[in-house]
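Problem 12. The chain below contains 192 residues. Write out its predicted structure in token notation.
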Amino acid sequence: IGNDISASGTGLYVGGSDLGPGIGGALIWSNSQYRNADFIIADNNLHNNTTYGCVLQIKGMTMTGNYIVRNGTGTSIGGCAISSSSFAITGNVVNSNSYFGLDIGFGNFGTVVGNSIFNNGNGIGTGIGLNLGATVGVTVGKNDVGGNGGASGGYEVYASALDASGPGNYGPFVGDALTIDGLNIVIGYGQM
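Solution.
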């Protein structure tokens, strides 16, 4: 709580999922056997890290009030990768990261509400503000999202049954029961 973390590889890393086979045989980080439980990630300033601002693999997590900006240097990295279960992600500012803003690929049974997710992927010309690939039982509520993706294209919000860049799936299951209600996509949002 209340840390300022910058200029490292990954700003805040709470790993602990077991490695196992995913759908299609791709090697994945399984979220069926977490080693970390019941964390509060709050009021941190995670900025200018070379890969992710944070990587969180936790069962039972509250993530609130964090400022996650200018992380990552290329594709498939950036703001925060959250492959967690039973989570609440609220009130975070996620801005100007290299590719992803919030990457919740194969997260399950959580809520994402009240976050500001802007201008991710603009440095490399493509990106995703909020990735929801292969999520199960996730509810996305009133978040402000805009300006993500850059000149070459990208997505404000990306949701698919699988979460992978090729055949197979990085997650242990196919996405299901995703609810998106009250999302605010802001057009023409400038740099913060």
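Discussion. The chain has a mean pLDDT of 84. Students who got a different answer should revisit the alignment rule from Section 12.3.
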